[in-house]
């Protein structure tokens, strides 16, 4: 049964209609004026409004317009006199479900109320269905996104629209700890201010909150309420989403947020798997250094950003001396272990933000970020000395000695293009290979080109 608001200034008619509707099992609130009706609408929710078109100090048409502008999901039946049918027709065009002509027979009123409530129920079910479909589509968009930046955009937009939130902040697990990763709806408020107000509070309570989410208190932001929902998948916490509302939390938000959070958890899990697979594509199988594919990507980014940053960078091209003799004397297994140990030595000679790659065979390339040729020469000499003095595979009982030739080329001093930079570093290294070895050469004009056979990479070591 339904909650019905009845408006009629005639006391007898109001009492008659009210008693009949109540006898049919409906909850009826009966009032005699438009103002009383507005007050009742502000205090309670109604499925149906039954109103006379002629009311004191106002009329039913104005009341109809008020209801449709403030509570459009409320169905309206209008009552008119025999000679007032034309206003009733206008009311239908303005959104009324039907009109009744006085005097009203009980069975006519019952039929009209049933029809209006059925229409109200169908419209409500259709709206809920549309919301469910929209929610499902939003969840699918989130779950199938494998680009991190696009995922952040899809997530914030979906939670804002589907949960009817005024603002949203997203947190994801990075290095075993939740970090602030995205936000939307905070206007001109700086990202740092939102992060400062939310991050520690979310970290402290997220593990104690059930999957359905919970209202939490956030100080320092101009919102009435905040609702935190954890983002999990297979019992693993991947993040959290914090929804902000200027007023009370909407029922739609409470219902939709956990659904979207489950899809976000799946997306973050898949993103982690995708990143792991992507890492394997750019890692050398033997040394676990980056490979030449990754170097190509990094150099592209360096050259793209160089004009704006105006920072130099340098490339070191290394080739081990007489490595083939190691393979011939001790076998390829020992040679492979030596290459792994060389990788560790190189990593210890550079900074964390420098890129060490295995180019192929016994060749390595190092990108020194923000380093000119003078700085690169110092790093190259540190590497040359470290390799020369190191006793390789000492724990295995070999204690092998080896040296390296290093070529240096720098941007923008020697080259302004990627291929040219790599080629000049390679040529400088090759000059050392043709001479005394265990030496460093800087890129220069008219250096001899390297043989074509050197550009065919292998994994077990070149001729050294």
The CATH class assignment of the largest domain is Alpha Beta
Cα shape? rod-shaped
What is the strand tally? 17
Beta percentage is 15-25%
Number of structural domains: 3
The radius of gyration is: 37 Å
Structural class assignment: alpha/beta
In N-to-C order, the SSE pattern is EHEHEEEHEHEHHEEHEEEHHEHHEEHEHE
Q: How can the largest sheet be summarized?
A: 5 strands, parallel
What is the CATH homologous superfamily assignment of the largest domain?
Reverse transcriptase/Diguanylate cyclase domain
- Number of helical stretches of at least 4 residues: 13
Q: Distance N terminus to C terminus?
A: 90 Å
What name does the CATH topology of the largest domain carry? Alpha-Beta Plaits
Helical fraction: 40-55%
CATH architecture of the largest domain: 2-Layer Sandwich
Low-confidence stretches: none
What multimeric state do the chains show?
A: single chain
Strand order across the largest sheet: 2-1-3-6-7
> What's the pLDDT, averaged over the residues?
87
